[in-house]
Here is the input.
Amino acid sequence: MRIISSILIWTASILLTILLFFVVLVLTILFFPFDKKKKVTHAQCYWWSDAVIALNPFWDLKVSGLENIDHKRTYVIISNHQSMADIAVLYQTKMQFKWVAKASLFKVPFIGWCLGLIKHIKLLRGDFASIKEIYHQASQWLRKDISVLFFPEGTRSSSNKMNEFQNGAFKLAIKEKKPILPICLIGTRETIPKGSWIFKSKVSARLIVLPAVEIDGFGPGDFALLRDRVRDKIEVAAAKPC
Here is the structure.
C-alpha cells in the first residue's frame, strides 16, 4: 500500500506542478503589460502549495504566527532551510515575495521554469559578480514594495542544528531600512524520503512566523548584531515543544 500511495503522491505532485507551469505561462502572457511585479503569477503558487500539501497523507503541517504578517509592509524574510519541501511550505504564508534561490533550481523542469517566469532572484554560488547582482536585484524589489526571502544558511542544514547565517541579507535590511520577518521551519527535513521515493511514515512539520524585527537603531556596522538576534529567535522557536 505504501508503494501504491507513494506512486499516487508523486504522480499527483508532478501533474500539479506541470499544471502550475502552464497556468503561470498563460497568465504571464496575458498580464505582461499590467503585472510588472508578477503578483498575479506568484499568487498561483498558493493553490499549488495547498494542493501538494493536502494530497500527501504522510504530511501533517501546522502553520502558526500568520498574524505577525502585515501584508501592507515590505520585509526581508529570513528562514532556516531543511529540504526542497520548504518551497511548498513557505507559500502557506500567502505572502508576495521573491526568493533568492540557487541557479540550479531554475533548471528543474516546471517548478524551476515557474521561478524564472515569476522573476525570482537567481544565485550562482561562488560567483562574486552574481552575489553582487542578487543584492542589487533584491534592493530593487524591496524599493518596489516586494519582500525578498533569504535562506541565510546558504545551503540546507544536514542536521537539526542550523548552519551559521551569512551576513548579506542583514546588511541589505539595514541599508534599505526594511524590517526582518523571521520564519522557523521544523520537521520539513523528513518530509521527502532520503535515498528512496517511498513515503514510509507520517511526518509532522511546522511553519512558525515570528514577530518582525525592526531595524530602527541598527547602523551599517551592526549587521552581525542583527544577524545573531534573528538567528537566536529562530533557534529558540525551533527548540520549543509543539
